[in-house]
Write a structure and sequence with these properties.
Elements (H helix, E strand, L loop, with lengths): L1 E2 L2 H19 L8 E3 L31 E4 L9 E4 L9 E7 L6 H6 L2 H7 L1 E5 L8 H4 L5 H16 L2 E11 L1 H12 L6 E5 L4 E3 L7 E7 L11 H10 L4 E6 L4 E2 L1 H13 L3
Parallel strand pairs: 2-9, 5-6, 5-7, 7-8, 8-10, 10-11
Antiparallel strand pairs: 1-12, 3-4, 4-6
Length: 271
């Protein structure tokens, strides 16, 4: 079970307050989904959360190291990658980018699906946000975190054989909000979104039609379910997205059975 520390919980509560304040300024909405604006020029692509990474064609090496290792993209605050023991270039792996909650680290993001990775052949990317939370929350703008994730994705696409029909972005709490945001913005890259207890989604542009999994505890006191997931889910459905929604009797956490349900849905659902 994944849970917030007291420090991270306090940080998350502060972020909810800030998001509500930002909504009044027209920056983004807490516990909601919005889409606005037109497609920006290539020069401004990161400003709207657009990623440029694409799966690479060609043969892939079959002698790459497995297990957990650093991404080696930033010596100051490094993210992680996990290559399952079952990986082979002859059998493309599913890929999931997993994002940590406020005040947490890359290890938390990785831990969300770590137990399933080896048995189910899932490569995991776990970035670390540059600030205590993700850029759209901490800086009210897309920037260094989008760039970092884009570089991590391209690194994996270049080195490993990926099943392009199974490319997910997911996360917990603020990481879930950011996963919804990036997943909806880049639905032509991400086929699935795994959002565990999200607070909001903010999009300047929508692309593709990713399938969405959302879970939320009915006793969540950090990101309460009523103004968050119970508001987000019907908005997504009205916009035509397929949403699998799972409520559970618990607080701001990710129960093991919810993770198992999400992974089974990710690997078996039609796209």
């Amino acid at each position: 079970m994944q849970n917030l520390t007291a420090k991270a919980a306090a940080m998350c509560s502060l972020i909810v307050f800030l998001l509500v304040s930002f909504y009044g300024m027209g920056i983004l909405a807490a516990c909601t989904v919005e889409a606005e604006g037109e497609i920006m020029t290539k020069r401004d692509s990161y400003k709207t959360g657009r990623l440029t990474a694409k799966p690479a064609t060609g043969a892939k090496a079959n002698d790459l190291k497995t297990g957990m290792q650093p991404l080696n993209l930033d010596g100051k605050k490094e993210g992680l990658i996990y290559i399952p023991s079952s990986y082979s270039s002859e059998k493309p792996a599913a890929l999931a980018v997993m994002l940590h909650g406020a005040g947490a680290n890359a290890e938390q993001g990785l831990s969300l699906l770590r137990k399933q990775a080896d048995a189910l052949n899932i490569i995991l990317i776990a970035p670390a946000s540059r600030a205590p939370s993700w850029d759209i929350i901490s800086s009210r703008a897309f920037g260094p975190d989008v760039l970092y994730i884009d570089q991590a994705l391209q690194q994996v696409f270049d080195r490993y054989a990926i099943e392009t029909a199974r490319v997910a972005v997911g996360g917990f709490s603020d990481g879930a909000s950011y996963a919804l945001t990036l997943g909806l913005t880049n639905g032509d890259l991400f086929t699935h979104i795994l959002a565990f207890s999200p607070g909001f989604a903010h999009t300047a542009e929508l692309h593709g039609n990713p399938a969405v999994f959302i879970s939320h505890g009915i006793h969540d006191s950090i990101l309460p379910i009523d103004p968050c997931s119970r508001r987000i889910v019907p908005q997504l459905q009205r916009q035509g997205f397929e949403v699998k929604y799972q409520e559970f009797d618990g607080p701001h956490t990710v129960p093991t059975e919810v993770v198992e349900s999400a992974v089974a849905w990710f690997l078996k659902s039609e796209v």
